[in-house]
Specification:
By secondary structure, the protein is of the alpha/beta class. The protein has helices at about 5-10, 20-40, 90-105, 120-125, 130-135, 145-160, 165-180, 185-195, 210-225, 225-240, 240-250, 255-280, 285-300, 305-320; strands spanning about 45-55, 60-70, 75-85, 110-115, 140-145. It comes from Aphis craccivora (Cowpea aphid).
């Protein structure tokens, strides 16, 4: 315990609920926790660093640093050393701060064998990024672009090339903002579920870097689409934004929305397991690669006509149960690329 803080605590009787005392207590807890982490890492011959930077709620840039290591019994650990306020976020400042944090915690920077960041150029730049500067100082510290982040980028870029899917997720996000951010609308949505003796479900916000939220969001909409339609019908009459409610009602009441809902829910279900496991600190590289191969095979299967027909029929049945008119689509165009056509 810090001697100055200890002296202040012993100097008078009180509840110690002021911001000053609370901050001092938090610092003490953080210091003791950090010391215990360092004791675990010190005997180990090697470690790797995981770094990310983001803005906090007060719009200040924070750098978070995590140490990954394996103990003598081959147990994998990831321990956060802390979050550090950054005034500048250029590659030079970040790389210097990372090395400074490692050294200040009595760790040998030369024992660092790997560094993990996202794909931002300031972090992963091959000529002057953080990874290049750390590699120059510690040559054995290989750079690994976070695989979960790479998966997110792949999904984002894939979706952006399909206008139907982009419009679908815009509608999903609009549903969340409209129903969850207004007290009256939220209460009506909860009451409709309560009147039907259903467990109250809250819609999820879509977060671009968290695909588990996207999967959960579609699951909840699929489970409560009947109640969502009922609420939107009520709000077209009672709400102060009836045009918004009417627009969402028309969009959700289409077979296209139901069909894309079924397709994307199934697609994200296949990716959800991989996304979660890639963030699991215990996973090994061979296990991760096996999971990637299995996911790739499952996605390939989902692209077949048989899988599409199955999803289409499920969506059709669901839409008819909701009273939504189903427009029969034309036969899928399965023409092969010229170089793949049989001779």
């Amino acid at each position: 315990c810090d001697d100055n803080v200890k002296l202040k605590l012993e100097s008078r009787y009180g509840h110690y609920t002021s911001p000053e005392y609370q901050n001092d207590c938090i610092k003490i807890i953080a210091s003791i926790t950090r010391s215990n982490i360092i004791k675990q890492i010190s005997p180990i011959g090697a470690f790797s660093i995981l770094v990310d930077e983001t803005k906090d709620t007060s719009k200040k840039e924070q750098l978070s640093l995590v140490i990954r290591f394996v103990d003598n019994e081959f147990n994998v650990f990831e321990k956060a050393l802390g979050c550090y306020h950054m005034v500048k976020c250029n590659a030079s400042t970040l790389s210097q701060e990372i090395q400074k944090i490692v050294i200040e915690n009595n760790l040998d920077i030369n024992k660092c064998i790997a560094q993990y960041y996202d794909g931002a150029s300031v972090m992963s730049g091959v000529f002057s990024g953080v990874q290049k500067r750390i590699s120059d100082a510690v040559p054995q510290a290989i750079f690994v672009h976070c695989y979960a982040h790479r998966l997110n980028l792949c999904l984002i870029h894939s979706i952006q090339n399909n206008s139907i899917v982009v419009n679908f997720f815009d509608t999903v996000q609009s549903l969340y903002k409209y129903l969850m951010n207004g007290n009256t609308r939220y209460e009506i949505f909860m009451k409709v579920q309560e009147d039907k003796n259903l467990k109250a479900i809250h819609l999820e916000r879509l977060v671009e870097t968290r695909w588990s939220y996207w999967h959960t969001s579609l699951q909840k909409i699929k489970m409560r689409i009947t109640e969502i339609l009922d609420v939107l019908k009520v709000l077209t009459v009672q709400d102060d934004q009836p045009a918004k409610a009417l627009g969402l009602l028309k969009e959700v009441s289409t077979f296209r929305f139901v069909l894309v809902l079924h397709i994307m829910e199934k697609l994200l279900e296949a990716i959800h397991c991989l996304s979660c496991e890639l963030q699991n600190p215990k996973i090994s590289l061979p296990a991760a690669m096996d999971l990637v191969d299995l996911t790739r095979k499952e996605l390939t299967t989902l692209r077949s006509d048989a899988s599409y027909s199955l999803l289409y029929n499920k969506a059709k049945t669901h839409a008819l149960s909701l009273g939504i008119t189903v427009e029969e689509e034309q036969e899928r165009n399965t023409r092969l690329r010229r170089k793949l056509q049989p001779s």
